[in-house]
Specification:
heterodimer; A: alpha/beta; Nucleotidyltransferase, domain 5; 2 domains; 5-stranded mixed sheet; 7 helices; B: alpha/beta; Rossmann fold; 7-stranded mixed sheet; 3 helices; 7 strands; globular
């Protein structure tokens, strides 16, 4: 299976190729929101390095959100365009899942956090169980200093925290560990890995069905009210 | 907080004030503007953009929400928040993608987005007087070198 993974959900942008069970190449840069100019160039670079053409790609994978409004639309548009042309399947990978992906085999609880401004974070949590990432907290928006309480209620212990505000979140959650600089932003290689497990579970879709997931404040607050 | 009060007597006077103000702008400066229709926000912005080196048409982006001006002394974006009423609306304009500190942001109708105005923003408050008279107050967290 050949997967082209793309991420432009934040200021960082990347493209990666996964081929025959392993990652072949990733082009990543965190240079600000210039995705409309650079993302396609990165895809081209990754495909050349992987020795593949767009028609060889079985799955086009892209982070589907939450994230930068403009960034998500650029990534979605790009992937939909390529998949529509070749007829290949798509994988819309949650930004949270892509952030948690490196910890799939860690045996730990992982809280993923994205900046929601004003000392709040978009949150989600996973538990690594036998090489699977099981979601243990639904997407929500929480003040940084309430993440610990919310996680405690769900039985999350000594979590690893990944995402762009992991440092601040880890400082506010008792017993938490900041996963560190390397895990602040999504990398396309991790989008490929997540897409690979989605493919095994039959969670792929067509270009037409691919949708961005703009987790917005009001929506997240409604989810939280339902959960309380 | 540094406060500066001005009275202008014509649209050109308001533009000239904006032009002078532009000398204090740096990359990432956010200018939060308050005031009713016709109180001078767009004229002030037009003057400031002239000061940054843009000669073309400058009008309020009421329907486009944002216009970008690139290639002057500083890149700038001009927002009209008149039709924005929630944080979701604002997110959907791509506003938060402009906060990387690279551009000057002129924002009209900040009455509608109190949740998004940063403490570091320069506030400009416009009031209409008799006829063409406008009272304009500028509140800046740092001293503005142009006055």
């Amino acid at each position: 299976m050949v997967i082209l993974g793309v991420d432009s959900s934040s200021a960082a942008g990347s493209a990666a190729v996964y081929k025959d069970g392993e990652l072949v190449y990733e082009a990543y840069a965190n240079e600000g929101l210039t995705h409309s100019q650079t993302l396609l160039v990165r895809c081209d670079e990754a495909m050349k390095a992987g020795g593949i053409r767009p028609s060889d790609v079985d799955v086009f994978a892209v982070t589907s959100g939450p994230g930068s409004f403009t960034g998500l639309r650029i990534g979605m548009g790009l992937v939909k365009g390529m998949a529509f042309a070749t007829g290949a399947a798509c994988a819309g990978v949650s930004t949270f899942l892509a952030l948690a992906e490196p910890f799939r085999d860690s045996g730990r609880d992982i809280i993923t956090v994205l900046d929601a401004r004003q000392k709040r974070a978009y949150c989600c949590a996973f538990r690594s169980v036998d090489g699977e990432l099981v979601r243990v907290m639904d997407e929500c928006v929480l003040p940084l200093d309430e993440i610990g309480t919310a996680a405690g209620k769900l039985g999350i212990v000594s979590p690893l925290i990944a995402g762009d505000v992991s440092e601040a979140a880890a400082a506010a959650v008792a017993g938490a560990e900041d996963a560190g600089e390397e895990y602040r932003f999504v990398h396309a290689a991790r989008v490929c890995m997540a897409a690979c497990s989605m493919a095994e579970k039959g969670q792929l879709c067509s270009a037409d069905e691919l949708r961005p997931f703009y987790l917005q404040l009001s929506q997240a607050e409604r989810n939280r009210l339902q959960n309380d | 907080m540094f406060k500066y009060d001005f009275t202008t007597y014509s649209q050109k006077g308001t533009e000239d004030l904006g032009k002078r103000f532009s000398g204090a702008l740096k990359p990432g400066t956010e200018i939060a503007m308050y005031g009713d229709l016709g109180s001078g926000k767009t004229a002030f912005t037009r003057g400031a953009l002239r000061g940054l080196g843009f000669e073309g048409n400058v009008s309020s982006p009421t329907f486009a929400i944002v216009n970008e001006y690139r290639g002057g002394r500083l890149d700038a974006a001009h927002f009209d928040m008149y039709r924005i009423s929630s944080e979701d609306d604002l997110y959907g304009t791509g506003f938060y993608d402009y906060l990387d500190g690279s551009m000057v942001l002129f924002m009209e109708w900040c009455e509608n987005i109190p949740f998004a105005v940063d403490d570091s923003a320069v506030k400009v408050i416009f009031e209409r007087g008799e006829g063409n008279v406008r009272y304009i107050r500028i509140e800046a967290p740092e001293e503005l070198s142009v006055w």
